[in-house]
Every structure is written in structure tokens, then in C-alpha cells.
Amino acid sequence: MPESPKKPKFNPALDNYAERASYRQIKCELFTVEGFSRAPVKTFWRVPEFKLGFDLGWQPWEFMGTPRYFVSHTHMDHILALPAYVARRRMMKMEPPTIYLPAEKVAEVRQLLGVFCRLDQGALPCELIGVKPGDEIDLSRELIVSVHKTYHSTPSVGYVVWERRKKLKPEFLELSGDEIRDLNLSGVEISYELRFPRVAFLGDSSARGLDENPAMFEADVLIAEMTRISSRRNDGLKKGGHMRVEDYVDRREKFKNQKIIASHFSVRYPQREIEAEVRKKIPDMLDGRLVLV
Ligand SMILES: [Zn+2]
Ligand SMILES: [Zn+2]
Fold first, then answer.
1. Separation between Cα atoms, residue 233 and residue 165, nearest integer Å
2. Which of 217, 98, 114, 205 has the alpha carbon at shortest distance from 160?
3. CA 288 to centroid of ligand 1, rounded, Å
4. At what angle do helices 106-120 and 82-91 cross, to 10 degrees?
């Protein structure tokens, strides 16, 4: 007699695995980048060591532990999971998150959350902070985030996360510990700040967004976009506001990054085609630093 089919048992380990398989984990020298992006489906990234993420187009369960997100723009594939992220943190009794986003869109996102509050019959506590190019956000003594102008079809920004360190000014190097302490107490500025760009997030933008923000070429890791990989006419995408594989070829000497993560490929390209097309145009994958996610 044939066995009756077994009812699948709930298996949290397997379930977690399935979630984890839906994004990539890229180990870098000082930190890890986790996430995934496809246009126009979903974009979501985070850097666990810095306790911050970029864009909320999707939200794997374990990403809710990240307390602050920097949103590049409000296209649906970049904010779809925003209400779920806020709701999950409330449900799990975590601190309300802080979400930075283009200032022009704060009021509408607040309205969106208001509607979800009514639909879901629960509060959605979070801090929404509008940003504009040129802003700097102090996260801690060590970390600072700068906001950059990018070029897309709706108000958009990119972000650079900097690590900063204080160094003693050279004129005080010869002094004793006591002398330095006394100077410091008397109000003399004894140190200067050094900044190191660690992660840059371009969001959706044409290559002009990179060209006008040179720090993005210098960051240890650049998370950029490569929406177009072929000149196929019928790729269903609007012209402009995105990067093409040729933009990377034209700028190959400018990338000083340890890793350049290219993502946000149009979902119309099959995975195999992405790899093949990019390797055809950039055979050395920018000295092996180009990572396709
Ligand atoms: Zn997008
Ligand atoms: Zn977009």
C-alpha cells in the first residue's frame, strides 16, 4: 500500500535557512555586508557590525535587530518592508527604530504608517528623520554618516559611513602625559580628526551620483547598482536614473574600493546571463574586487 504523504513538519532551522538563502553575506576586512537587490523587486542591506542598514525593500526576520536604517528613496522596491520592520520591533519589545529618508518624503511615509496603524490595529513607533545632501549624522564617537546627492527619477540620496579617529596634533607629540592633560583641561584643541570611509551606499542612481561623490570611490566597500547589463531594447526599464555595466568599464581606474558590490540587476535578466554579460565586458572583474549579488 502506498504511504500516505506526510504532512510537512514546521522546522525552524530549515525555515531560517530558506530565509538566509534569500540574501548574500559578503565578508569584508573589517565588517560584513548582508543583503540582496533586484529591480524592481526588493533592495535591502545591512552591516551588522555598524548596527545599521540601507533600504527596506524586504526584511528577513533576523534583520529586525538592526536598530537604524538609511533609506535611499521611496520607490516600492526600497520601502515595502518599512511598516513590517517597525511592527516586528514593537512586537519583539525592541526600542523603536530610527529611519532616515529623503526629507521630501517624510510626511507621506508618516501617512503610510498611519494607515497601517489603523489596518493592523496597533501603534508603529519609530523615529522618521528627513535628510538632505550635505547632512552629517553622528551615530557614535566612532561613526558618522554623510548624505549625498544622487540622480534618480524621484528624490534620492546616497550614504557614506565613516569611521573617525582622534589623533594628537603633531605640535604636541613631544609633550608629557601631564602636559597634554593640562592643555586639554585649559580648553586647547589638542587633537584633530581623521576619517575613513568604510561603506558607501549609492542606492538607485545614474553614474553621475558616483562621479559627484568621490568618497564613494574611496570607501572600503561600495554598494552600487548595475540595473542594466545589456543593450537589449526590450528590457522593460525606463532610461536614465540607473547604472549600466559600461559605466563600470568607463570608471575602472576610479574605483579604489576593496570590494565593489554591484546589484539591483533588472529581474528580467536570468542569473546566468548577468554573470556572462558582466564577465564579457569586465573579464578581470575589476581585479577580482567586483562582486555581483
Ligand atoms: Zn530600485
Ligand atoms: Zn528606484
1. 49
2. 217
3. 25
4. 50
The residue ranges of every structural domain in the chain are 24-229+240-287
pLDDT in tens, the chain (293 residues): 444 555 545 555 445 555 556 899 999 999 999 999 999 999 999 999 999 999 999 999 999 999 999 999 999 999 999 999 999 999 999 999 999 999 999 999 999 999 999 999 999 999 999 999 999 999 999 999 999 999 999 999 999 999 999 999 999 999 999 999 999 999 999 999 999 999 999 999 999 999 999 999 999 999 999 999 876 655 556 667 999 999 999 999 999 999 999 999 998 888 888 999 999 999 999 999 999 99
Q: How far is the CA of 56 from the centre of ligand 1 (A)?
A: 11
Cα(14) to ligand 1 centroid in Å equals 29
Residue 181 C-alpha cell reads as 592633560
Hey, how many other C-beta atoms are within 10 angstroms of the C-beta on 90?
A: 17
Could you tell me which residues are beta bridge partners of residue 168? Answer: 191
From 111, 64, 57, select the one nearest 90 (Cα to Cα): 64
What is the edge-to-edge ordering of all strands in the sheet holding 143-149? 136-138, 143-149, 157-168, 191-201, 221-225, 259-263, 290-292
35: number of CA atoms within 13 Å, CB side? 31
Pair 36, 263: CB distance under 8 Å: yes
**41 CA from centroid of ligand 1 (Å):** 7
Per CATH, the homologous superfamily of domain 24-229+240-287 is: Ribonuclease Z/Hydroxyacylglutathione hydrolase-like (3.60.15.10)
Which ligand has the minimum distance to the alpha carbon of residue 241? 2
